[in-house]
Amino acid sequence: HVQLVESGGGLVPAWTSLRLSCAASGLTLSRYAVDWFRQAPGKEREFVAAITWSGDRTVYADAVKGRFTISRDNAKNRVYLQTNSLNPEDTAVYSCGAGPRRPFGERLVSGYDYWGQGTQVTVSS
Question: Residue 3 has what pLDDT?
Fold first, then answer.
């Protein structure tokens, strides 16, 4: 198992922004489409966003459309999630995941071969 590593989370007030980063150790991340998903305490995993291997297509959950932007820099082997206009409902552990045979754009939160432990995003009321 190759664990992806997320960073960039923190405790922030509402209406601010964070840029989350996803990197891989021992994996060429540019070979894969990558998802961001999140999980709040006591809740199920929730799809957030996805991006193709080349970055030419993106998909977002309705809850974050217009506020979050997923992007990638394959030269740096990184995937990012820019989170704007954060509100307390966005509080969760944010993780990235990838799998070589996952269908793209179906907002699934399963079938990952690789994923990280996540970075905590806490948005105050």
Answer: 81
